[in-house]
Amino acid sequence: MAEFFPLIAGLTGVVVMNFFLRRARFLHLPETQMIRAIGSSITRNADNALLPGTIIHTVGGIFFAYVYAFLLSTAPDTQGSLMVYVVACTLMGLVHGLVVTLFLVISVSQYHPLDQFKKLEPGDMAAHVISHIAYGLTVGLGLGILPRLLG
Description:
By secondary structure, the chain is an all-alpha fold. The protein contains five helices and no strands. α4 (about 80-110) runs antiparallel to α5 (about 120-150). It starts with a helix and ends with a helix.
């Protein structure tokens, strides 16, 4: 059962991350179309990009939840401490968000096949970092709470 905890935490983290990306206006940040941008980098068309973008983003979110869980498993004495899970995963989300934002600035904004996704502003970058922090916090809560509830 424990091997499914990152799956559940990752799915939940993706939902929270998408909320922060799509509803970033409440933080006075621009609404981003990251899933459509991911999908259209493959389809080369924004109209049919939502399904492939959603699949890629969801699989990526699940994958990174397993990465976060693995990194936590290498830390000394994390068993039983919800705060360690939450803080460590939130910090991993921060680093993850900074790396992804750097990737967006270098790669996506210069080489994306559609012009509408080549424009990346500071607010977009802040929304990505904040959404990754929210993802990390959610994954940390999931990895810390799920074993107590279902373990």
